[in-house]
Each structure stands twice: as structure tokens, then as C-alpha cells.
Here is the input.
Amino acid sequence: MTNERPIRVLIAKPGLDGHDRGAKVVARALRDAGMEVIYTGIRQTPKMIAEAALQEDVQVVGLSILSGAHLELFPRVVEELSSRGVDDVLLFCGGIIPAEDIPRVKEIGFDGVFGPGTDTSDVISFVREHAPARA
Amino acid sequence: MSNSTDLTRAEELSEQLLSGDRRALSRAISLVEADTPAGRLISGLIYPHTGKAQIIGITGSAGTGKSTLVGSIAREERKRDRSIGIIAVDPSSPFSHGAILGDRIRMQDLTSDSGVFLRSMASRGNLGGLSETATAVSDLLDAANFDVVLIETVGAGQDEVEVANAAGTTVLVANPGAGDDVQSMKAGLMEVAQIMVVNKADLAGADTAVAQLRSLLAIANFGAWTPPILKTVASSGDGVSELVDRMDEHQRFITVSDHANQERIDHAQRQILALARAVMHRQTLAEATESLLLDMLTKQVAVRAKDPRSAAIELVDSLRSSWSGAQSSK
Here is the structure.
């Protein structure tokens, strides 16, 4: 008998802002949608995020950031991930990302960008639709 | 059924993880955890490379500070220059089957240490299968050359007791003032723990908790190893060094002391029985719920035409004869 593997998601907060309400709301919504959510807490370095993604073998990494350092930190997360061979994960982000930065954020590799006011069901369907399959 | 693709993949991943590739280890854990054909092949391939690690189970009620204690133990092991693999098991929601796995929060500083590998595992509600999975994953970490493997579970039922059984040394964590906690330990976990820890020992009532445990131990029947009772404050690290000393002492007891042979035999038998129970439980229930006989029996019991125990025996007997039929047709 093979157990169907639930989608595994890492939710992390890079950088120095300590406001994790949004991250927690998303984590709970994904759990309630049947996913296994690894929540790492606040103040994560890109290295810590990449290492956690590797050890937990997640298909999806969601980052929440409100400090404005996204253009600084996101590329470094992507770098750290690919230096570990973790290049087949779906990336999304939430928090405060100014509209003019969104194209750049998507270019870095974050396919989903969810700002304030997002309905959690949008995040859920985004993850369900785009999470890479894993055996 | 496995095919040649599965085999190639299993051989590749096994080789990589044996040579210390963390990405391969992580992928292998997923395959084993999902009980895939490739995962089963990997378990078989790496098994000859296991048996080197010190396997520790940490169990206790929710909120006793297990995760924090595991973090402190990991730091102490790193100080002693040993690498450590950690499996942190948390329950899946019985409703959504999802889970929030938050053990990394208490071990943030260990995340980027290459001598530490932490894997969060949801129980996935698999019927009796948790001990199967945890044992198989601990074998992977053992094969990947970690000196110490820690399995952390919430001690709340048979499954958890069996996870503890899989470990060489089981540490039971309790708190001061938790009178009911200590009471409930009489029921089962006491017998499988080789070390007792009163964590949060900076709170009032720590000595009382120790005394309660001691009086419970006095009436229990132990073999050559009497479980020590220790006090720790996981958040500050107090008492953790002594705990690790005691874990090492028990490891010597089961590996090199005069009792080692007997311990090895007892442990092997416990492991087989625990896994057999898990396998039977899973197979039987999977088949039973699909059985037409179950429908029939259910109707009879519902109108009290038959008692549930006779119905259960009839169901199991019928499954058993279908198994032996399948066996002889092979």
C-alpha cells in the first residue's frame, strides 16, 4: 500500500522583520487544505531557508517579507537553493511587495506573489496547481 | 511492484546517501516515508550499512519541552564533536490530513550546521505504520553516517511506544507538577524508558516529580538496567550534559557490557514484533474495510443478531484463509 504523499511546503520569514501573522495564517490555511507545512519561524537567513528546504524535501517554499529587503534577499535564497541542487521547488511570496517590484520578483523565480488582502483560497489553489509532482 | 526504473533510482540514491549526499538522503527519506517501491528497495540496500549509530527515542506528553530538549541535546552532541540526525514526528490532522511541523523553530541555530540533519515527519494517520516509517528513516540516517539519531514523538499511544521501542535508548520526558502525567506513565511508557527526565526543573515541584517517579520505579520490575531520573532545564541547557552522559552509559550497556548480547536479542525481537504488528494492522484493516463480509457482519451486529467480538473473529478468520489461498497460488 502506498500512502499518498501530501504536498510539503516550507513557510519562512527571511530578514529581520518579526511580523509573522501573515505567514502563520498562510501556514494554517495550507495545513487545513491537507498539506504538510514546515514552519521555521522568523529571522531566517537565505542559507537557513535553503538548508531547511533541502532537509525537509519540500516541493514548495513560501516566503513572507515585510521589511522591503525582498530584492536583496530573494535572489540569495534562490542562489542558496540551487547551490544545494534544490532547483525543482515552486516559490511564492507574500507580504509587502511594491507593485513595481513584482515583475523583478517573478523574474527571480517567485511565480506567485500574494499581497495584503489575498484570499487564502487563492494561495491554496496556486500551490495545488503548480507544486511539482514528487514520488 | 517495483520495476527496473525503481531499482536504478534506488541504487543511485543509496550510493549517494552512503557517500554523504544530503540531497539524496532527503529524497530517500521521502520515498521511504511514502512507502514507495523505490523506498523499499533503498531500505534493503542500505541496511547492511546500519548499526553504527546511537539511536535515541525522546517521548513524553505534548508541552513537556521535548523539542527544546532535543535542540539542547543536539548542541551538546555537537560540542562532543558527534554528528546528529533528528526525526521530529508530529501528528497529522485527522480531518484535513495536513500538519504544521514547527520543530525547526526551536532548533534554528542548528539549521546551517552540516553536522546536523533535521527532518520533520507528520504521522499521516497511517494505521500502526508510524513505527515502520520512523524505524526505516532512522536506518537511513544511520547509514548516512550520523553518529547519533534522535527520534522525537509525542508519547500518547501505542504507536509512540513502539517508536520508542525502535530506539536503543528511550528517554521519557515529564514536567514538575504534572501529577496526572506521572500517573499515566504507569500504564506503559514507564516500562519502555531507560532514562527519565524531569524537564523544566526550574519550576516548583521538580523534586516532588522526581520523588514520584522514584517511587513508581521502586515497584517496577527492571532487569540489569535501572532507569536513572534526571532533572533538566532544556531552555538553558542545565542538566543536558549529564543526560547525554547517561545516554552514552546506556549505549555502552547495550553494546559492550556483559548484558549486550541479551539486550541485542531482546531489542531485535521487540523490533520485529512491533513491525509485525504494524504490518498486520495495516494489511488487515485495509483488506477488512474492503471486505463484503464486513458489510454483512456490520448489518448483523447493528441489529444485535451477532455480537461484535464473534463478528471480528469471523472477519479475521476469513481474511486469514484468503491470505493462505494467495500464498499457495504464488
Q: What stands out?
A: Chain B is about 55% helix and 15% strand.
